[in-house]
């Protein structure tokens, strides 16, 4: 890690100055970054000869009692754009701590402090009134901030190969990748495999997705399990001359009512394990347990998907290994229960769910059965993320912590319309999640655990089509109007008309650079930018200027466009 020693000194100083008792690492990348600083669960303060206990946020979420946290807590994350993640985490833990100590007579002494590796200084944040409690190593402008985000995402994608703290992870070693591809192509009656090149910035990554075509298994959950899928990543190890294939089963489950989730949990988990969860009589305390119950159930279903894939590969004498990651992020007892569950001849998921009932939330309808192509599906998800980002920005402006999550039930008209559309939906979802463009989330609302999605950490950097050529044109225009939103919008339609005619005359449409469809999308996207985050949305994509593939053809077009932009047709050139 760059500047590791300086960061360590930074954190040590904060721990000393504010008498920090616990450090809590946030999310996958914040945790992975901190593990490079401290890998044993304790952070040593040499000046005071003491240790600060380190927790992972999602491990803490699964606890029942929080009165031990009634102290000074440092939340650690890799980067901070708005501070939303920090404040939501603080709010969540404050509620849990308050409920834990309300009957104990303890005084609330909890204090939260915040540390991030990189902060975007050009962005208004929810922590602007808590600057005395916020510490960061770097402060960067939009361009540099998002370039860091992209490089970090590419690094973690390579290092973690799509690893997830909430899902079971399996791996397999083969000499030839075609061995794996032959298996998935042979099992067309039970597995639908897709593989696609995706991009994190200008870095190309290959992501695979498995769709388990086993309706009987999915039907056991009465609609709660939308699809049985798996993420696939592989890499070649030159030293060992083999491929490591990582398979992460992913049970795409829906939103669920508290009472139904509790019933499902009790049907699957035996009495001895259930006693650890303790459904307290205090209804507020019960509510705080439901995210944990949801993750327990989802992990077990995902494990069974992995177990099913393992059985298929064993037919071909290929051993899929479970990495026991449930013991790290849940507990050893939980991980042991999950593994033993599927080895117990007297217990099976079918018998457990015999009387399970799931009432679908309002708003689910079976609509059209038109087949949706992958690019159209991907564009649709992208538009949802754009709209959600705008809502999140408005909440930021009003200092509102409303969780603007895209409820998965809102997408039911797509994934319930046909099996083909469900497969395509799962493919697009997996590719976008593993590219950090969409964040897979759950939260509590009324009496439901809501499953859905938020804009990912680098969603503002992305476009659903190859944007190298169009962005070069937009950026030239953006500079011509001096990065001014009103000037940009005033002559935008004229700019688009001249740009389109230039691309048409140069026969650039339907090439690797651009199509009529992508041009129409880009035109609408940039015209729809709002003034408040106009600069951010454009500056975040400046990495596209660094793309080198076929750069001479792009330069030829942009050089002519730059001449067009000097025309008196544009109001900005009229003095």
From TrEMBL:
<protein>
    <submittedName>
        <fullName>Uncharacterized protein</fullName>
    </submittedName>
</protein>
């Amino acid at each position: 890690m760059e500047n590791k020693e300086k960061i360590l000194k930074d954190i040590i100083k904060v721990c000393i100055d504010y008498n920090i008792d616990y450090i809590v690492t946030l999310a996958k990348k914040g945790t992975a970054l901190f593990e490079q600083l401290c890998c044993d669960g304790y952070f040593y303060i040499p000046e005071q000869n003491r240790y600060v206990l380190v927790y992972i946020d999602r491990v803490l979420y699964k606890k029942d009692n929080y009165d031990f946290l009634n102290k000074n807590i440092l939340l650690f994350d890799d980067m901070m754009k708005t501070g939303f993640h920090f404040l939501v985490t603080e709010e969540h833990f404050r509620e849990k701590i308050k409920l834990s100590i309300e009957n104990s007579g303890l005084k609330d002494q909890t204090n939260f402090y915040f540390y991030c590796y990189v902060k975007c200084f050009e962005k208004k944040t929810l922590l602007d009134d808590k600057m005395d409690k916020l510490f960061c190593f770097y402060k960067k402008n939009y361009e540099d901030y998002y370039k860091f985000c992209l490089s970090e995402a590419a690094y973690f994608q390579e290092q973690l190969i799509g690893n997830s703290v909430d899902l079971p992870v399996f791996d397999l070693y083969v000499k030839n990748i075609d061995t794996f591809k032959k298996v998935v192509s042979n099992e067309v009656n039970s597995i639908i495999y897709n593989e696609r090149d995706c991009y994190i910035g200008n870095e190309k990554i290959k992501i695979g997705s498995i769709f388990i075509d086993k309706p009987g298994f999915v039907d056991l959950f009465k609609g709660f399990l939308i699809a049985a899928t798996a993420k696939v990543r592989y890499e070649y190890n030159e030293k060992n001359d083999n491929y490591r294939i990582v398979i992460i089963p992913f049970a795409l489950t829906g939103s669920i009512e508290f009472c139904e989730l509790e019933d499902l949990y009790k049907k699957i988990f035996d009495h001895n394990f259930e006693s650890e969860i303790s459904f307290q009589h205090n209804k507020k305390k019960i509510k705080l347990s439901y995210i944990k119950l949801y993750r327990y159930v989802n992990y077990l279903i995902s494990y069974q998907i992995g177990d099913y894939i393992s059985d298929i590969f064993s037919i071909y004498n290929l051993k899929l290994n479970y990495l026991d990651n449930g013991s790290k992020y849940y507990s050893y007892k939980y991980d042991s229960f999950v593994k033993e569950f599927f080895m117990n001849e007297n217990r099976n998921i079918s018998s457990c769910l015999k009387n399970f009932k799931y009432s679908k939330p309002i708003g689910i309808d079976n609509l059209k059965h038109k087949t949706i192509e992958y690019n159209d599906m991907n564009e649709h998800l992208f538009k949802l993320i754009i709209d959600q980002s705008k809502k999140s920005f408005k909440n930021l402006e009003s200092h509102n912590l409303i969780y603007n999550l895209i409820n998965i039930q809102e997408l039911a008209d797509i994934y319930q319309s046909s099996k083909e559309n469900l497969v395509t939906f799962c493919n697009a979802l997996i590719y976008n999640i593993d590219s950090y463009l969409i964040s897979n989330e759950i939260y509590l609302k009324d009496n439901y655990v809501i499953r859905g999605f938020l804009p990912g950490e680098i969603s503002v950097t992305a476009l659903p089509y190859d944007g190298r050529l169009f962005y070069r044109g937009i950026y030239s225009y953006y500079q011509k109007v001096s990065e001014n939103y009103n000037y940009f919008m005033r002559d935008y339609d004229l700019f688009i008309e001249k740009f389109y005619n230039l691309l048409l005359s140069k026969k650039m449409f339907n090439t690797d650079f651009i199509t009529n469809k992508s041009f129409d999308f880009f035109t609408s996207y940039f015209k729809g930018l709002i003034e408040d985050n106009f600069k951010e949305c454009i500056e975040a994509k400046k990495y596209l200027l660094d793309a080198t593939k076929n750069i001479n053809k792009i330069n030829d077009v942009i050089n002519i466009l730059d001449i067009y932009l000097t025309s008196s047709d544009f109001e900005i050139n009229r003095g």
